[in-house]
Specification:
By secondary structure, the chain is of the alpha+beta class. The protein folds into three domains: 131 residues, Creatinase/prolidase N-terminal domain (Creatine Amidinohydrolase, Chain A, domain 1); 140 residues, Creatine Amidinohydrolase, Chain A, domain 1; 278 residues, Alpha-Beta Complex (Creatine Amidinohydrolase), CATH 3.90.230. It is built from 19 helices and 27 strands. Strands 4-3-2-1-5-6 form a six-stranded mixed β-sheet. The relative contact order is 0.09.
Length: 566
């Protein structure tokens, strides 16, 4: 609250009516460091932004965080759900005109979408949150290079593929502003963000295939010698404008979705801008055979850890443990693998009413002990040396009531509908999404999130452009990895979600989803009367596949329990 008051005082100092504070940092990663939005609002979700005015504080979030935001920030903030309402529809132009923002934290397209041209948007080069509160920065950690045996393609090959696409753009130079795309292109990783092995770096590439690499130069000692490309040079971020000034080009391509106002302004002062979608997003969305095989290996290790955890939690009759304990317990099972590094996102371990909070994270304040009649939802994942995982399982500890079983089964039916979808006939995200929601829709129920998101290869656990959602029309192609996670949430009571990661495989010209995730689905929550024969066969086949692939890594008791899940 003290920080909020200090920001309000700065509005007068800078002659502003309002100030925008986003979740993202200047690199637009999902897991921002520093997290300025949390500093001001206490909101811990992965997406959202606030607008601080002299009289009212607004917090804009999507449907995933409607409950969570009220719990964490509802006392001091008015919660607004997007995309149903945007600032341009909420803010009174008679009272609010001058709105300040940090130009490094926003793209022009974002500002236009949220505010249109109704307001006077004023870039403030000094971030107002940083002015009153400076978060402790992580120690400098080195970037590192991945072996070609892990990624399946050299950086030289990727650069050549990229240029085949860029030649069609007819730009003299291009700015790669998204660090995750830098990571993919050069086969490097970093430790700049929690949960994601992303190196905070950016590139300029000119039409002669020269690459100008911008980063914290203290972190690049190792990779400078290892990158197999002789036309790359390394610079500090502060040298960006100097390098721009030396380029003898006319047209400059930028991605308007990831290039900040700050960098766009620098580039536009020297060059004619061509707006384009960074082609690396599409290139890295298609995983090669080696990446797929390595992802399979990572998921076997992850499946073993999760299955051991599920067995332990289902067998343990002492309900004295709580959510935070269970979160640590699962982490212990994952750490047993020498290839495990750290979680791919903050584990969601929600019991009872907490399971209804879609992106819940247990804390000392919200932590609750597990009760026998609770539904327990656990959404977790890991970063392994050769892959990224993300899986959700919902379990019960006693005989659930019929309504919960019916709803769980309908969520399962939606999950199976996605898993068995014929991609040769239905290959667009929004069409597959309809199939996932149909079983719940028959009893007028739905869920407030997408059915699936793309996943990176030892990169971000959330990756575009592909997704299974109401508004995504990207074609699902061979080699893509995507989550399959329908759910249902009843505020104050329970939440249900079933999530596997799948990849797209072509067999005899037929495109099909194949499961990466190998962990049993809780049969105690299923009403088998609601499943048709095809769905029953799918479930049996899946649980048998799980048993076949991971049973050899289990002890006798775990193995017997898993066998009974088939």
């Amino acid at each position: 609250m003290k920080n909020l008051i200090k920001v309000k005082k700065l509005l007068n100092t800078y002659n502003l009516d309002a100030y925008i504070i986003p979740k993202n940092d200047e690199f637009f990663g999902e897991y921002a460091s520093p997290n300025r939005l949390k500093t001001i609002s206490n909101f811990s979700g992965s997406a959202g932004f606030s607008i601080i005015t002299k009289f009212v504080n607004y917090l804009f979030v999507d449907g995933r965080y409607s409950i969570q935001s009220k719990m964490e920030s509802g006392k001091n903030f008015k919660i607004i759900e997007i995309p149903y309402h945007y600032p341009k529809n909420i803010l009174n132009t008679n009272i609010i005109n001058k709105i300040g923002y940090d130009p490094k934290l926003f793209t022009r397209s974002t500002l236009e979408r949220y505010f249109s041209y109704k307001f006077q948007l004023i870039p403030i080069n000094t971030n107002l949150v940083d002015e009153i509160f400076q978060e402790q920065r992580n120690k400098e950690k080195m970037f590192f290079k991945l072996d070609d045996k892990i990624v399946g393609e050299s950086e030289h090959s990727k650069i050549n593929r990229l240029f085949k696409v860029l030649n069609k753009n007819k730009s003299d130079s291009i700015f790669i502003s998204a660090p995750e795309n830098v990571a993919w292109l050069l086969n490097i990783r970093g430790q700049d963000n929690p949960n994601s092995p992303i190196p905070n770096a950016r590139l300029i590439i000119d039409n002669k295939k020269n690459i100008y690499f911008f980063s914290n130069t203290k972190k690049i000692k190792n990779i400078k010698k290892q990158i197999k490309y002789n036309k790359i040079s390394f610079y500090k971020f502060e040298e960006f404008y100097n390098i721009l000034s030396k380029l003898n080009t006319k047209y400059f391509a930028i991605d308007k979705l990831t290039c900040s106002v700050f960098y766009e302004s620098l580039i536009s002062s020297k060059f004619i801008i061509n707006y384009f979608e960074d082609p690396i997003y599409n290139l890295k969305s298609i995983k090669n055979k080696i990446e797929i095989e390595n992802m399979k290996s990572a998921h076997i290790k992850d499946g073993v850890a999760l299955t051991k955890f599920l067995y332990w939690i289902k067998q343990n009759k002492n309900f004295g443990f709580d959510e935070l304990f269970l979160e640590k317990k699962l982490e212990t099972f994952r750490k047993a693998s020498k290839d495990y590094l750290y979680p791919s996102f903050n584990t969601i371990a929600g019991s009872g009413p907490n399971s209804a909070i879609i992106h819940y994270r247990s804390s000392r304040k919200t932590n609750r002990k597990i009760k026998k009649k609770d539904i327990f939802l656990c959404d977790s994942g890991g970063q392994y040396k050769h892959g990224t995982t993300d899986v959700t399982r919902t379990v019960c500890f006693s005989k659930p009531n019929q309504r919960i079983k019916d709803i769980f089964t309908r969520v399962l039916k939606g999950h199976i509908a996605v898993a068995t979808n014929n991609l040769n006939k239905v290959n667009k995200g929004y069409l597959i999404d309809k199939k996932a929601r149909a079983p719940l829709g028959k009893i007028n129920l739905d869920y407030g999130h997408g059915t699936g998101h793309g996943v990176g290869f030892f990169l971000n656990v959330h990756e575009g452009p592909q997704s299974i959602s109401k508004y995504n029309s990207i074609e699902i192609k061979e080699g893509m990895i995507i989550s399959n996670e329908p759910g249902y949430y009843e505020e104050g009571k329970f939440g249900i979600r079933i999530e596997n990661l799948v990849f797209v495989e072509k067999i005899n010209k037929k495109l099909k989803f194949r499961n990466l995730t190998m962990a049993p689905i809780d049969k105690d929550l299923i009403n088998e009367k609601l499943l048709n024969l095809k769905e029953k066969n799918y479930l049996t086949k899946y649980n048998l596949e799980v048993y076949t692939k991971i049973s050899k890594f289990l002890n006798r008791h775990e193995k017997n329990w898993l066998r009974n899940s088939i």
